[in-house]
C-alpha cells in the first residue's frame, strides 16, 4: 500500500466548488464507506473544514487509487464526470503525501499560518475514521505522527504566538470597512458550534460590544453567551439583531443559507445613514446566499475574499523553524516506511531458509532411521542455529540500509538473489509529475 492525498482547498478551488465538496460530520461515515468500497482504496481518512476537503488514503495503485478517489469526490459533489472536478484538485503521493500531511498538521498550509484549529480538526477526522474502521496500519501511523508533529511545531516555535485564527484574520479585513475600527461596535455571532465559540471569544477580546449570540438551539446560544458575558437572542429575531449590529460573524453548520437576500435587504433598510453592515461568512457551505453578496449597505466577506487578503503574507522566522521540523520528521517517517516495506522480504527469506532446513531434515531422517529422537532434535537445533546465525547480520543490515534514501534497492536485490516471490502492491505505473497546491 502507498500513501495518496487528494484534496481541494482555498488555494485551488473557489468557494462554490468547496461547498459542493464539503462533508458534514454526519455524512463522513458514508463517505468513508464509499471510499473503502473502491477496488484500489484500502484505508481512508477524510478531512473537511471551512477551507479544505482532503482524502488521505492508502492505495494499492497510484492511477487506480487516484481514479477511485476522484470518482467518489465527484459523485459526492454532484459532478457528472470526475474530469470536471480535476482542475480544482491537488494530488500528493508517497513522500509528498507525508510532507503535505505534516504541513497541514503544523498549520503551514492554513490560510492563517500557524492557526491551531486545524490540529483539532485533523484529530476529529482521524477519530471518525477510527470509529468507522477505515484507517489501517499505514494511516494510523501517518495520523498519529502528523498530530505529534503539529504539537511539536506549536510547542517548540512561536508560530502561533500571536494567537491568530481564521476569525482574527477575518476581523482584520472587516476593520477596513468600519471607520474607526471594531472597538465598541455592536456585533452578532450566528452559530454556537466550534467556530461560533471561537468567534465569540475573539470578538470579546477585540472589544466589540454589545455582543449578541443566536443559534437554532437556543440552549447552546445561551450557554455560549453566558460564558463570555454576551447576550443570547432568539433565532426568529435574527432580522432585529442584524439591524442593531455593525458586524456579523456567521458560522453555522447549516446545509442551506441562513442569511438570504430578503433578510439582508430588510436589515439594510432599517440601517439608513449608518456604516455598512459587515458580514463575515465563515461557514462552508456558505451561510450567506450567493445572490445576497451585493445587497446595498452590506459588505459580505467569505472565504474567497479572506483568502485573497491573506495571499501575500510573508513567511516569518517561526515559519522557517516549523518547516525545518517538518522536513526532519518527514525523513524520519519515510525511513520507517522503507523499513516497513523490507519486512516482508526479510520474513520471506527466513521462511525460505526454514523450508530448506525442514526438507533436509526429512531426507536425513529417511536415510538414517536408526537415529534416536534426541539425535534428531540435536541435528535440527544445530541446522537451525547455523542458518539463523548466517542470516542474522545480512537481515539486520538490510533493515538498516532500507531506511536510507534508495534503500528499497536492497530488498529488491535480496528478492532477486534468493528468487523470493512476494506479492507487491500494484502502484505499478511510474508516478508522473503531478502538481501540489497551486
Automatic annotation (TrEMBL):
<dbReference type="InterPro" id="IPR006151">
    <property type="entry name" value="Shikm_DH/Glu-tRNA_Rdtase"/>
</dbReference>
<feature type="site" description="Important for activity">
    <location>
        <position position="100"/>
    </location>
</feature>
<dbReference type="InterPro" id="IPR000343">
    <property type="entry name" value="4pyrrol_synth_GluRdtase"/>
</dbReference>
<feature type="binding site">
    <location>
        <begin position="49"/>
        <end position="52"/>
    </location>
    <ligand>
        <name>substrate</name>
    </ligand>
</feature>
<comment type="function">
    <text>Catalyzes the NADPH-dependent reduction of glutamyl-tRNA(Glu) to glutamate 1-semialdehyde (GSA).</text>
</comment>
<feature type="domain" description="Glutamyl-tRNA reductase N-terminal">
    <location>
        <begin position="6"/>
        <end position="157"/>
    </location>
</feature>
<feature type="domain" description="Quinate/shikimate 5-dehydrogenase/glutamyl-tRNA reductase">
    <location>
        <begin position="175"/>
        <end position="308"/>
    </location>
</feature>
<dbReference type="Pfam" id="PF05201">
    <property type="entry name" value="GlutR_N"/>
</dbReference>
<feature type="binding site">
    <location>
        <begin position="191"/>
        <end position="196"/>
    </location>
    <ligand>
        <name>NADP(+)</name>
    </ligand>
</feature>
<dbReference type="InterPro" id="IPR036343">
    <property type="entry name" value="GluRdtase_N_sf"/>
</dbReference>
<protein>
    <recommendedName>
        <fullName>Glutamyl-tRNA reductase</fullName>
        <ecNumber>1.2.1.70</ecNumber>
    </recommendedName>
</protein>
<feature type="binding site">
    <location>
        <position position="110"/>
    </location>
    <ligand>
        <name>substrate</name>
    </ligand>
</feature>
<dbReference type="InterPro" id="IPR036453">
    <property type="entry name" value="GluRdtase_dimer_dom_sf"/>
</dbReference>
<comment type="similarity">
    <text>Belongs to the glutamyl-tRNA reductase family.</text>
</comment>
<keyword id="KW-0560">Oxidoreductase</keyword>
<comment type="subunit">
    <text>Homodimer.</text>
</comment>
<dbReference type="GO" id="GO:0019353">
    <property type="term" value="P:protoporphyrinogen IX biosynthetic process from glutamate"/>
</dbReference>
<feature type="domain" description="Tetrapyrrole biosynthesis glutamyl-tRNA reductase dimerisation">
    <location>
        <begin position="322"/>
        <end position="420"/>
    </location>
</feature>
<dbReference type="InterPro" id="IPR036291">
    <property type="entry name" value="NAD(P)-bd_dom_sf"/>
</dbReference>
<dbReference type="InterPro" id="IPR015896">
    <property type="entry name" value="4pyrrol_synth_GluRdtase_dimer"/>
</dbReference>
<comment type="pathway">
    <text>Porphyrin-containing compound metabolism; protoporphyrin-IX biosynthesis; 5-aminolevulinate from L-glutamyl-tRNA(Glu): step 1/2.</text>
</comment>
<feature type="binding site">
    <location>
        <position position="121"/>
    </location>
    <ligand>
        <name>substrate</name>
    </ligand>
</feature>
<dbReference type="GO" id="GO:0050661">
    <property type="term" value="F:NADP binding"/>
</dbReference>
<feature type="active site" description="Nucleophile">
    <location>
        <position position="50"/>
    </location>
</feature>
<keyword id="KW-0627">Porphyrin biosynthesis</keyword>
<dbReference type="Pfam" id="PF01488">
    <property type="entry name" value="Shikimate_DH"/>
</dbReference>
<feature type="binding site">
    <location>
        <begin position="115"/>
        <end position="117"/>
    </location>
    <ligand>
        <name>substrate</name>
    </ligand>
</feature>
<dbReference type="InterPro" id="IPR015895">
    <property type="entry name" value="4pyrrol_synth_GluRdtase_N"/>
</dbReference>
<dbReference type="Pfam" id="PF00745">
    <property type="entry name" value="GlutR_dimer"/>
</dbReference>
<dbReference type="GO" id="GO:0008883">
    <property type="term" value="F:glutamyl-tRNA reductase activity"/>
</dbReference>
<keyword id="KW-0521">NADP</keyword>
Amino acid at each position: 500500500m502507498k500513501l495518496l492525498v487528494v484534496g481541494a482547498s482555498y488555494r485551488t478551488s473557489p468557494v462554490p466548488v468547496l461547498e459542493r465538496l464539503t462533508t458534514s460530520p454526519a455524512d463522513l461515515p458514508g463517505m468513508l464507506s464509499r471510499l473503502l468500497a473502491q477496488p484500489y482504496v484500502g484505508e481512508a481518512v477524510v478531512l473537511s473544514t471551512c477551507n479544505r476537503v482532503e482524502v488521505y488514503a492508502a492505495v494499492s495503485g497510484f492511477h487506480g487509487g487516484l481514479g477511485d478517489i476522484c470518482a467518489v469526490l465527484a459523485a459526492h459533489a454532484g459532478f457528472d464526470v470526475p474530469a470536471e472536478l480535476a482542475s480544482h484538485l491537488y494530488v500528493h503521493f508517497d513522500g509528498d503525501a507525508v510532507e503535505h500531511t505534516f504541513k497541514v498538521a503544523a498549520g503551514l498550509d492554513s490560510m492563517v499560518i500557524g492557526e491551531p484549529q486545524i490540529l483539532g480538526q485533523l484529530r476529529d477526522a482521524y477519530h471518525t475514521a477510527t470509529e468507522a474502521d477505515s484507517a489501517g496500519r499505514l494511516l494510523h501511523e501517518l495520523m498519529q505522527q502528523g498530530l505529534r508533529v503539529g504539537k511539536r511545531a506549536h510547542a517548540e516555535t512561536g508560530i502561533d504566538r500571536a494567537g491568530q485564527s481564521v476569525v482574527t484574520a477575518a476581523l482584520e479585513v472587516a476593520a477596513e470597512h468600519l471607520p474607526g475600527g471594531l472597538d465598541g461596535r455592536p456585533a452578532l455571532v450566528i452559530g454556537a458550534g466550534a467556530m461560533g465559540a471561537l468567534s465569540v471569544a475573539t470578538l470579546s477580546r477585540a472589544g466589540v460590544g454589545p455582543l449578541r449570540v443566536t443559534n437554532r438551539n437556543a440552549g447552546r446560544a445561551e450557554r455560549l453567551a453566558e460564558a463570555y458575558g454576551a447576550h443570547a437572542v432568539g433565532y426568529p429575531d435574527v432580522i432585529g439583531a442584524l439591524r442593531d449590529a455593525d458586524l456579523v460573524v456567521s458560522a453555522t453548520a447549516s446545509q442551506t443559507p441562513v442569511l438570504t437576500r430578503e433578510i439582508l435587504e430588510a436589515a439594510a433598510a432599517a440601517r439608513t445613514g449608518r456604516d455598512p453592515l459587515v458580514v463575515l461568512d465563515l461557514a462552508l457551505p456558505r451561510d450567506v446566499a450567493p445572490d445576497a453578496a451585493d445587497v446595498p449597505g452590506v459588505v459580505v466577506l467569505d472565504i474567497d475574499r479572506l483568502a485573497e487578503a491573506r495571499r501575500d503574507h510573508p513567511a516569518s522566522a517561526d515559519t522557517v523553524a516549523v518547516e525545518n521540523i517538518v522536513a526532519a520528521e518527514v525523513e524520519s517517517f519515510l525511513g520507517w516506511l522503507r523499513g516497513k516495506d523490507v519486512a516482508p522480504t526479510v520474513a520471506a527469506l527466513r521462511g525460505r531458509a526454514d523450508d530448506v532446513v525442514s526438507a533436509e531434515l526429512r531426507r536425513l531422517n529417511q536415510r538414517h532411521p536408526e537415529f534416536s529422537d534426541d539425535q534428531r532434535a540435536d541435528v535440527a537445533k544445530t541446522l537451525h542455529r547455523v542458518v539463523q546465525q548466517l542470516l542474522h547480520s545480512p537481515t539486520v543490515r538490510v533493515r538498516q540500509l532500507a531506511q536510507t534514501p534508495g534503500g528499497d534497492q536492497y530488498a529488491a536485490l535480496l528478492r532477486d538473489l534468493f528468487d523470493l516471490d512476494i506479492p507487491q502492491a500494484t502502484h505499478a505505473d511510474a508516478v508522473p509529475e503531478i502538481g501540489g497546491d497551486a
